[in-house]
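Hi all, long-time lurker, first post. I run a small reading group and we've been trying to get comfortable going from sequence to structure in the token notation. Rather than ask abstract questions, I figured I'd post a concrete chain and ask someone more experienced to write out its structure so we can walk through it together at our next meeting. Sequence below, copied exactly:
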Amino acid sequence: MKLDAVRRHALALPEAVEQPHFERTSFRVRGKIFATAAQDGQHLHLFVDEQQREQALAMYPAFTEPLRWGDKVVGLRLTLRAAPPATVQRLLQQAWAHRGPKSTPRNGAG
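-- Answer (accepted) --
Happy to help. Here is the structure in token form:
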């Protein structure tokens, strides 16, 4: 999957915006980052809850790995060229829902 397709899917989610985040781009909902990507489009970082992260790591070892911040695992790192678009879309929606406000409709997004 290419970064342009990720961008289209992320920005189709309610209230999602794209903003720079250091040397990366970030996708946010009401100021909270739910995904980041390097400009080269090789990897996508997703901030999902622990249960979703562990399930994705178990189901998709070919293109996911833990995203670490120091000693802490904070999300998923996806290798985009190996990830099926439908799976990336689903994980993007999960990350958006995890970071989105409770008042934002979560079902039917995307």
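A couple of things your group might point at:
Helices lie at 3-11, 50-59, 85-99.
The chain is about 30% helix and 35% strand.
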